[in-house]
Amino acid sequence: MTEGKWDEKFAIFLKKYYWDSILQLANNYPDHRSLVVDFSDLEIFDRNIANELLFNPDEVIPGANNALQQIDLPVEKELDDAKVRFIRIPSKVPSRELRSKHLLQLVAIEGMIRKATEVRPKVTNAAFQCMRCEHVTMVPQNEIKFTEPHECENETCGRKGPFKIVINQSAFIDAQKLQIQESPENLKGGAQPQSLDVDAEDDLAGIVKPGDRVIINGILRSHQRTTREGKSPFYDLVVHANSIEYMDQEFDELEISPEEEEEILSMGRDPAIYKKVIGSIAPSIYGYDDVKEALSLQLFSGVPKHLPDGSRVRGDIHMLFVGDPGVAKSQMLRYMVKLSPRGVFASGKSASSSGLTAAAVRDDLGDGRWTLEAGALVMADMGIAAVDEMDKMSTEDKSALHEAMEQQTISVAKAGILATLKSRCALLGAANPKYGRFDRYEGIAQQINMPPALVSRFDMIFVLLDTPNEDMDSRIAKHILKSHYAGELSEQRKNMPTSNITQEQVDDYMGVIKPVIDADMLRKYVAYSRRNIFPVMEEEARVHLVKFYMDLRKMGDGKDAPVPVTARQLEALVRLAEASARLRLSNIATLEDAKKATGIVYACLRQVGVDPDTGAFDVDVIASGTSKSQRDRIKIIKEIIKYVGEKHPGGKAPLEEVYAEARNQEIDREHAEELISKMRRSGDLIKPDKEHVKVV
Ligand code: ADP
Ligand code: MG
């Protein structure tokens, strides 16, 4: 093969297919240095060259670059540093399937940017000046190691240095290392995502951010690993990027065939669709119909809106489960990750350096350079981030969450890295109370160790209590045993050839825990709806929401009354009503949808915002942990203890006398006991012995 074989062919191809783009490039050169070439054009021009490009890119791409750099332009300009960048490469390979046969080929890797280092200059051709004779020797640099000259090039000198580098005579390019990871939607059943390192150079450096969904087209190369003992026989893979394509469409990757679209549309017309979707959420978990209803709406989400002032209102519905251990919180989270077209699971106490949001770290990828790494909320962009054990989040994550939940961005400013990453996802959180069990007299925020301002950003909070109830317990127990039994039948049939269990029997029992709509189809249904359905709310529906909101506000009317609800709940209502319309593929949010929304919010508020003493809604319970009436009562009890204590030595008030006095003030004994134990926990009281209390 002669040098320049590809140069000539590309000269013809580029002139024929890309002349206008080349002229434009010449106009903007050197600010723009890339000519983007669509692979399919090359294929039409010459199938052979196109094929060679895929299998022999190290010869073909330099040929294409030469052709571009030497093209005769009608204007006085040299494109001597311009590059041809090929896009829409057909040979897409999932990164977990990359094998040695792909080495040195042009591959297209699809995924999400997980990490990106700072952009730094990299020397490509270093100028060494001999410190004895001042002669300058140029040494081209390779990818792996910095090479110095063996001896001075100058024949009359020829000594082994010493040399010094002359920066302004050396050639540099911008370089950045990236790490691309498989997108959550391409992972089946919670598999660990695999990642691959990418070298981005020149004008490709600094254009992507962690969280971006991209296709990297490039040459797959390998670097020999080195260990402390020396070179290892194993090679690490790295893609040398030729071009980067953006994918920003929501759920672009989930393909829906025309037949499936037909099926989706007919599902949307089914009057029972609402029930069917609810029945498809975590069927192995018994009960929780109201929670599952809310989870269904979270899948579909409200409509994100772009306002004329440039701001964006989120459509995502944030939900939080708080409650006793063992009530299937974690199970439901995991199931939602499976159902969401883009679900990411994370734990608040996860050890990952990026945490939940994002972090600037120094690690191997950048050889000690600062690297920006995306956390779960960035990786779940346009999907659902399920975060378990939120009570154990780090302080940094807690403060970053405020921005992530409302603005849906995550800003990082550390070590010279300034970046704003997108995190347009719905947050589904679960938290365990500090003292193990949920205490309905204490505020949610304190019990789960989160700032109240953060807690109030959830559209819905469900308190899941594990209260013994004979009827319910037996039904849950039966359900759990049935699903285990079905599993046992299926396993025995599968693994024991002698088993006489029939498939019919297995199917029969599996029916109990089978989702009504199977998970793959539901994912597609959700993706279709979120892509195509943008409901507008009817007048009646709006009137209903406003009235509901006003009524709630009014409950707290009057002097010194707690504020019952805030405008946040009104926004939550709107999102839920829109999601309800989307669930049945309707472009109108009707009164029915609005009623569903108010029903759910009412149920939620009753659990969390309700003052357990008066029954009135009181958002103070969420915010400060104590409702107004409770605060008043605590004050009364404290006065009583002080007053009784004064009559006894050492200020020790006998409990019986305290209870008696409390009864006079219309606080019954059970209640007084609860308040006293609460005050002991908060450190306002001490109990010197079993029979006495004392104010601190
Ligand atoms: P949590 O995260 O709330 O502590 P888990 O999600 O780990 O609880 O659930 C504990 C176990 O109890 C799981 O195996 C779950 O399947 C089971 N479980 C709890 N409640 C139910 C229920 N209502 N129906 C079926 N299984 C349940
Ligand atoms: Mg759990």
Annotation, overall tally of beta strands: 26
CATH topology call of the largest domain: Rossmann fold
How does the helix and strand content classify structurally?
Answer: alpha/beta
Widest beta sheet: strand line-up: 3-7-8-10-9
| Low-confidence parts | 558-564
Q: In angstroms, what separates the terminal alpha carbons?
A: 92 Å
Strand content: 15-25%
Number of domains: 5
Percent helix? 25-40%
- Which radius of gyration do the C-alpha atoms yield? 33 Å
CATH class term of the largest domain = Alpha Beta
Description:
With 696 residues, the chain is α/β, with parallel strands linked by helices. It has 5 domains: 85 residues, 2-Layer Sandwich (mini-chromosome maintenance (MCM) complex, chain A, domain 1); 152 residues, Nucleic acid-binding proteins (OB fold (Dihydrolipoamide Acetyltransferase, E2P)), CATH 2.40.50.140; 188 residues, P-loop containing nucleotide triphosphate hydrolases (Rossmann fold, 3-Layer(aba) Sandwich); 91 residues, Helicase, Ruva Protein, domain 3 (Orthogonal Bundle), CATH 1.10.8; 68 residues, Arc Repressor Mutant, subunit A (Orthogonal Bundle). Helix content is 38%, strand content 23%. The chain is built from 22 helices and 26 strands. The strands form 7 sheets. Strands 3-7-8-10-9 form a 5-stranded mixed β-barrel. A hairpin with a 5-residue loop joins strand 4 and strand 5. Helix 7 crosses helix 17 and helix 17 crosses helix 18. It is globular. It binds adenosine-5'-diphosphate and magnesium ion. The site of magnesium ion has 3 residues, from helix 8. The site of magnesium ion (MG) has 3 residues, from helix 8.
